[in-house]
Amino acid sequence: MAPAQVQDGDNELVKQLKEALQRLHDLGERVKALERQAERNEQQRNGAASADMPAHAHAPGQPQPDRRNHTTDGSRTTAAQRLSQYVDPRTAYGGTAPTWGLPPLPASQVPRPISTTDVPMGATRMVMAQIVPLSESNGLDICLGGTVLSWIDVCAGLAAKMFSHGPCVTASVDGVHFLRPCHVGSVVIVAAMVNRTFRSSMEVGVRVEEEDSRTGARHHCCSAYLTFVALARNDPGGPSPAKRTLPKVVPTERHHERIHAEAASRRDARLAARKQLHSSLEQMAQGTELRLRPITHREGQPTLPPALRVDPRDSGKRRVAPSLTAAHTTQMVLPQHANSIGVTFGGQVMRWMEQCAFVAASRVCRGGYMLTATMDSISFLKPTRVGDTVYIEGQVTAIFGSSVEVMVSVWGETPDIGVMFHCGDAYATVVSVDCHNAPVHIPFELSPESQAEELRYRMAIQKRAERLALRDRMCRRKKMRVSLDGGIRSDSDSSDNDREAISQALTTKPGSPASNGCPDGAGQDVAA
């Protein structure tokens, strides 16, 4: 190309740029004129005395006032308000914004506007990864169930707090079934997501998976549903914080719609059960009677019942009273046990519950090792705070071949006040196994003595049937499901010995030896 042609092209480009700048300047002047006209119209509507005075008028000799960050009444405007009033000169007066040669985005990929009342369900996801340390395991290199429950509570609490932008407390935890144990050295992936909101409360679904660090295989271990209540921040010395209204969670995918609908059904079931309990004075009286009182508040009680022994020459079972399986523990809530507003973590309380349940189960289990199979639903009636004393009482309520049900009652007490209050009850199923993870027959038979012990035993039989029915529904789930963190779970090795030990113990009838066999796929998914 000749130098003259290049120079002519440059001159033409400069000319076009000058014309474009002039058009932008004219548009800017037009926008300023419209703003001044709008100010005059506003003054006329308000009946101001200076309605006929130009908006830019000022006293002679005085500098021009800065109106960029103020409204017509003199109040300051925020950056968001100024941004919303900005007029893009590229699209003003019928113009179109340049596309820079790129094709427009499809409608499905256009970013949604930020809203304080409409949050996509997928945006509430929270994922944690933990390596199981040796200190959190039993003698079989299996992670303790209480540790997994505490991880579940922490991950769910993070999802709830990030979603609500404020403090949250655990109100209840639905029953958790441990389908597979987590082993020492493996990676435990805990994924949580807000399933649905209900004014000031929300349901958070949690899914726990174990990833074998040697093979990379990932397996579903358990799922949980937790209810959190959002609280407003308060002064440390002020009254208890009030509840806050939460934004709405909206499902954006097909499987999210199913989870969203199931969350409403679960909430209705919780409210119906609570209403039925409160409407029946007899059930309320039974619930109060069944609670285990702290041993420190009972006169004439030993610190721990004497050890139970079995005569090797006796081929039958020894009958024992439930009171001989009593266990208790006392804890003080320290700062590391509580959240940012000083309320004890629900997961920490569940960890203490499991420890007390193990002590009670060890009174009759003779396998040498114990595994937590299930932890029934828990409602935290009253919270404990930093500095409070927590009393946890446990007692075996029923024996089923190689597994036992343990009732655990939690009480709290503020030392400055000295009044004890009830925090909640829980029922844990503990399995007795040997060093090869095989179920071990329990050589004891429970013999209730009081009316409360007899009632606990009958309720244990009923709850066991409900657990087995729920486990049967788990077996019918599909084997492949997308995890909350995006991975694909595989249950190809459904005959794992660890899971068989738990399943065999749970399906054993009361008073019979541990049975062999379990429905194939006993560890299939319960969607979180």
TrEMBL record:
Here the segments flagged for biased composition (Polar residues) are 504-515
Q: Where in this protein does the record put region Disordered?
A: 32-80, 236-255, 296-317, 485-528
Q: Which GO terms describe its cellular component?
A: cytosol
**Compositional bias annotation for Low complexity:** 48-61
Q: Name one GO molecular function term.
A: long-chain fatty acyl-CoA hydrolase activity
The record places domain HotDog ACOT-type at: 122-234, 323-436
* GO BP: any one term: acyl-CoA metabolic process
Q: Which UniProt keywords apply?
A: Hydrolase
Record field: compositional bias (Basic and acidic residues): 32-43, 488-501
Matches recorded under SUPFAM superfamilies: Thioesterase/thiol ester dehydrase-isomerase
Q: Name the domain of life this protein comes from.
A: Eukaryota
Q: What is this protein called?
A: HotDog ACOT-type domain-containing protein
Species assigned in the record = Chlorella vulgaris (Green alga)
